[in-house]
Amino acid sequence: MIKEKSQLPAIPLDLHGMEEIAQFFSTIIDTRSHFTANHSSGVSASAMKLAELLNMTSTECQEMRIAGYLHDLGKLAVPETIIEKPGNLDKDERDVMKSHTYHTYSILKEVKGLEKIAVWASFHHETLTGEGYPFHRSAKELPTGSRVMAVADIFTALTEDRPYRKGMEKKKVVEIFSEKVSEGKIDKNITDTLLDNYEEMDTVRSNAQKKHDVNLKIFWGRVKELSH
Ligand SMILES: [Fe+2]
Ligand SMILES: [Fe+2]
Question: Which ligand has the minimum distance to the alpha carbon of residue 153?
């Protein structure tokens, strides 16, 4: 629509430009929920670090970072009354919340050049047992990037501080991951890589989330200045 209506020339983005746009989007996504105000930064940093530890190429590591920033993009389609609801969601609300991965996929798959990132970003709630969502993909339909994203998302969700609770301790996190591996839901090799490098992973995640908080403070400070 913008292309049709505007006279502006299209600007082709390289991977670095894409990363900046993705980071910008992640700020919008996270700002909508004070429960998970820096979640995407943590997932992005964890996914990229895991990709490095798994010896993925440097381009793939950067793509994992972009996919991490965008993995919850579809939450923009979930009403704020659900995103910000204190307490538990009911069944219908949970279903709407779960639709975020479908929306992430349906948006990203339309962007030329982002096909791989769309798959890596959107299938973070799929499981190797085929019981995940939104598409119940089976193990053979889930590439390494999507498996990394699933592990990075769980890791960040468990270890990050939220307004209503502190991040979980290592012992409990290891227990949860081991259980998920034994149920065949997540990739064993990727989980082992995470657990073998736990402290480094946790530092990378937490530093990225702290940096996000600082940048956001600076941003809102400038907005305040400008509005005076
Ligand atoms: Fe998600
Ligand atoms: Fe997430």
Answer: 2
